[in-house]
Amino acid sequence: MFDFSDLPVIDNHCHPYLFDVDPARYKPLDSFVGVPDDVPGGLEHRHAMLYQRWATRELAKFLGCEPTPESVAAARARVGDEGEYVRRLFASEGVEALVIDTGYPQPPVDMSVFRRRVPVTLHPVYRIEPPIKALLDERVDYDEFVRRFDAGVRRAIREEGFIAVKSIVAYRTGLDIDLAHESEEAGRSGLTAALAEPDRMMASKPLRDHLLLRTLRLCGELGVSFHVHTGVGDPDIVLARCNPALLNEALKQPRYRDTNVVLIHCYPYMAEASWMAAALPNVWMDLSEGVPFAAAAADRIFETALELAPVNRILFGSDAFAGPEQTWLGAKLAKQALARVMTTLHQRGLIEEPEGREIAAKILSDNARAMYG
Ligand SMILES: [Zn+2]
Q1: Neighbours of 211 (CB within 10 A)
Q2: Architecture of the domain defined by 9-18+83-372
Q3: Ligand 1: centre distance to CA 196 (Å)
Q4: Cis amide linkage into residue 105, ω under 30° from 0
Q5: 231 C-alpha to ligand 1 centroid (Å)
Q6: Domain ranges in the chain?
Q7: How many A from CA of 353 to the centre of ligand 1?
Q8: Residue 289's closest CA among 33, 30, 105, 34?
């Protein structure tokens, strides 16, 4: 059996979080998928999910308290020095750096405060939807729209320290990007259509398709990777249009091959993403969210990713959004799952023993280091 507990970890996808530690409830344990809190019985519903139960036990061990949500929340609230606590938490799983999508939450978290509390290297990712919303709200014309949109992306990369650009079009109008919306003419009429019906999200689809393709080109020009949300997420996802396969038509075009594209999450469409990462030389797959939140699927997620995707095209991530423990739980679960998966692959004669550790190290951090440079 392999043991990867000492390997370093880079979290390829997570968010800045507020350290609002409530002694009655600890959000990293019970605030992901599932019915919202304000629905009667919402919290009990979440507490019945496997991830929450497992996370509660793991965190209770780290904090030295009873394995109940109440005891964990109380013990977490007694932690004094947040920076020292996060340092100790991350050191126990070798977490060295976070790639942070600052587009959630909104309004954004103050990164200088966040940096003080999270003593590892942080690499922010620039999300395109907040500026799209701001420009739509201002009702500017097309020329001004694209001038300010492009300038925002360029400034983020060249001057503001962002290392990649991200889109959550799967939460807006879906991943079925229509290449007919690529031209300037289509962008112009797309903006007119979006402004004519500001309350109907699908009216903005031609414009959003246009801007996504525009961003792909910009990322190629700037030499940075483009992250795109795929798979399930919060309840407002466009569920029928979040399969990464829907992006294939756009991504297979030779003119977008200069941009490295990271399919974020992929769950539950790991097989489609694995094929895309195999068939398209510029596509990576990130396994955040499924690991750790679909805890029972962890082994299957890594196994499926490894079916076709080259071992240097798979990235560990957590999608932590409520607290540092989510990155910690993701790293812990990923290391355990990878050890089991590599053991099985070795027993089946598909890998040599040294390859097990090499592949795990690539997924946990080496691939991210190589891709971001
Ligand atoms: Zn996320």
Answers
A1: 28
A2: Alpha-Beta Barrel (3.20)
A3: 31
A4: yes
A5: 11
A6: 9-18+83-372, 22-78
A7: 34
A8: 33
- 229 alpha carbon to ligand 1 midpoint, in Å? 8
Q: What is the distance in A from the centroid of ligand 1 to the CA of 41?
A: 26
- Ligand 1: centre distance to CA 15 (Å): 6
| Residue 122 φ/ψ, nearest 5 degrees | -115, 135
Ligand 1: centre distance to CA 73 (Å) = 23
| 324 Cα to the center of ligand 1, angstroms | 14
**Distance from Cα 233 to the centre of ligand 1, integer Å:** 8
Q: How many Å lie between the centroid of ligand 1 and the Cα of residue 25?
A: 22
Sign of CA dihedral 244, 245, 246, 247: positive
**178 phi/psi in degrees, rounded to 5:** -95, 120
Rounded to the nearest 10 degrees, what angle do helices 353-361 and 324-347 cross at?
A: 160
> pLDDT tens digits, residue range 246-284?
999 999 999 999 899 999 999 999 999 999 999 999 999
For residue range 201-252, what is the model confidence (pLDDT) as tens digits? 999 999 999 999 999 999 999 999 999 999 988 878 888 899 999 999 999 9
Residue with tokens 């079916």: 307
The model's pTM is 0.96
Range name among 41-55, 57-71, 325-339 with the lowest pLDDT average: 41-55
Sheet of 261-265: strand order equals 9-14, 95-101, 121-127, 164-167, 225-230, 261-265, 283-286, 314-315
Distance from Cα 311 to the centre of ligand 1, integer Å: 23
